[in-house]
Amino acid sequence: MSTLTEAREDSKTSLGRQLLRRKAITTMESEAADGGSGGTLRRSLGVLQLTMISIGATLGTGILVILGQAVPVAGPAVWISFVIAGVAALLSAVSYAEMAGMVPVAGSSYSYSYATMGEGTAWVCGWCLVLEYAVSVAAVAVGAGQYVNETLSVVGLQLPDALSQPPGSGGLVNIPALVVVLLATVLLVRGAKESAVVNTAIVAVKIVILVFFCAVAFTAFNAGHFAPLMPMGAAGVSAAASKVFFSYIGFDAASTAGEEARNPKRDMPRAILLSMLIVTTLYVLVAVAAVGAKDWQWFGDSEAALVQILAEITGQAWIAVVFAIGAVLAICSVVLTVLYGQTRILLTMSRDGLVPSVFARVSPRTHTPVAGTWIVGILVAVTAALVPLGALADATSIGTLFAFALVNIAVIILRRTRPSLPRTYRVPLYPVVPILGAVACVFLMANLDGITWAVFGAWMAAGVVLYFAYGRRNSRIGKLAETEYQEARA
Q: Which terms in the GO cellular component ontology are assigned (predicted)?
């Protein structure tokens, strides 16, 4: 009779208990080692490749695609917006570095939340990451059409707007964006190591072209372009910082490589922090050079501002072509690395039973989640082809900020609950830094417009429906009896 009563009690409180159930870090590590029934990923990435994944997912996004939208909002102070966003991202990056060294798996902030705050919070975080990764890939790919046209214009050719712009921006379908995403998908299916080699080469190219742009732009530098510094006031600078924040998500993509890093506990913190330093420095330099070369009102709403600046300064068409080709490669790199992160997040969620098992199937030949990669790639390609850039970028920012805030909180929780757990990197000035990181994320979220919040709310509502329709019933940890769960946590 008592057993029956206990079972009924468990039934009454099963939802609450399930939402609060945490996954042991040791369990995550063992699943990463054996891959469960889906197969294992191959550990083939060193600190250079991890750093390049982080830079590849970050560098170029804000400068090559979003600069034309950020300058009209912030004015000449757009470089301050990049600094604010960079500092906010760095506060979270150091928390990521600590967590990545402790939880070297593919789940990134989803796994960190599962280990510290339970399945409910982990699901919300994972659902935000789906928004962050998939939408950011599409948002960056949208800019490919404009740069392809800049390249073709030298030989007198141009794709019509109907085929190079999405609906809402004067076109029907963005073919270049579609092609870029599908090519990245094909490369990812072939293998993580192969993808990392290609990405490293592309990252080197885009660092060179950005340095080249700065060298040329500074020859036309006019200090008068920075007066007045903040024509839209501090509110404009803050709003622009919220807009460009999505261009700092690269270190988050690097943290999804935990199961494919050769020495994740040592190399992942190094890669995250090194990439943040490189990216922030280049972003600020390029923003200063661009505004110094052209009055801020010139930028309008261009998605290829840097190419146009080079063409006007030099008067040499071939220089603009070289830069435009480099810009397309830069966009390809972002698409490749962020799409990589998306597939690894879904792989981890699939192992936990929260999304269909197809995402966790790893090919024994390529050691990649082939089916999941194709599903994600096709869905993102269609989105990139049909949805305008602005709506995509803002939606990405809010999902990113929410996930980053959770990681800062996760650091604080683990410091209090597991103080003796080995840490290969520790957040400096604890607990000030993670608290400031969480506050900065909330501040930037508050600066996003009402439409973005409405989209975010609708996305979260859809996530709740999906969790109750599929995740709750199929969760592996949710199926455990209370005694089994306690044994797993021991």
A: membrane
